[in-house]
Amino acid sequence: NIIRYYSQDPAKNIGEVRKITIEVHDNVNGPKVLNVNVTGGTKVIDKIYTNNQKPVIEVQFLEPAIVTHSRLVNKATGLIVQLQGNTELSTKVSFATAENLPNGEYVFELNAKNKNNIFMDQAVNQIIVVDNSKPTITVSIPDGAVINTSVIAITVTFNKEASIKSLKINSEELKEKLSTTDNKIYSVMLNISDGNKALEITGEDFAKNTATKTVNFVVDANPGTITLANPRFGTAPRYTFDLAVETDNNAACKYFLDNNFEFDFMEQFAVTSGTLHKITDFNKISPGDLTTHKLYVRCKDQRGISFKAFDLNVDTSPPQLKGAFAFPSIVAE
């Protein structure tokens, strides 16, 4: 289109006719980026995290384009890494770094033009975080701690933003109970039974570096309990058998058969001081003795001495099948 115009002075004299040529084109927008991908990258909000120190950056355009400017700039140090773009029109362009990048936060700068030599309306400034260091995990419960309450607050702290992939206490998964406001400090309040506990934590930062931590502790909120572990129901199938009792917490246990003595005058289990207290080849019930005896057990832990008595006997006769029935009474195929 050509626009012609002229000027006129106050005396009505017409000036020289001038003209302006106006060209109007379609497709006047510059190329647009569909997405930016990074080797091993994870996008969190507006940042891409990777633990690869020589990442390949792949840019997908909505139309064929030629990259005119591309580089990485370290935000902390100002380090500039020039990146080689393409020379022919393409919808996909990959950028490889020649050397390992130091850990840090980088700005990926990019501009490009399309076939009409029209540049991008807005250049790309994508934050890329390179980080190959494992997160460190700190737990509020010290390793080896003895805790005298059942309601326990557990705090897990990372040195950087991370997620908890697993938190188990004695193999029970509890990660869904945790809460956080900053992806660095996670907390939970748990009601935990007495006994020896193993807390196992697996964490992963946004760059997919993983770390694990194990903390062993003891919950001793209630007076000690003693249970007969073997024979399970107090009846042994032979006159020489393994005798064992269990406690909910670490303790030193002693026993006596048929006499209820004080702790210092009882006999000690061959294996004790943990939670399982055992005598191998126990034979204090005479062969042929079918009477029920009393096994007296006392265990000493940091809370004091707990006591339990169990019935104990030997029955060598096999069980006899007295009868059988089915319900319903008529069974048909």
Q: How is the topology of this model organized?
A:
Elements lengths: L1 E4 L12 E4 L11 E6 L3 E3 L2 E4 L5 E19 L5 E3 L7 E7 L7 E10 L10 E7 L6 E3 L6 E2 L3 E8 L3 E8 L2 E2 L5 E2 L4 E7 L3 E11 L4 E10 L6 E5 L4 E2 L4 E7 L4 E6 L9 E2 L7 E7 L10 E9 L2 E11 L19
Parallel strand pairs: 5-10, 12-19, 21-27
Antiparallel strand pairs: 1-2, 3-6, 4-5, 6-7, 6-8, 6-9, 9-10, 11-13, 13-17, 14-15, 14-18, 16-17, 18-19, 20-22, 22-25, 23-24, 23-26, 26-27
Core attributes:
333 residues, 5-stranded mixed β-sheet, mainly beta
Task: Outline the structure in words.
The chain is mainly β and 333 residues long. 0% of the residues lie in helices and 51% in strands. Strands 3, 4, 5, 6, 7, 8, 9 and 10 form an eight-stranded mixed sheet that branches. Strand 18 (195-205) and strand 19 form a beta hairpin. The radius of gyration is 39 Å and the shape is rod-shaped.
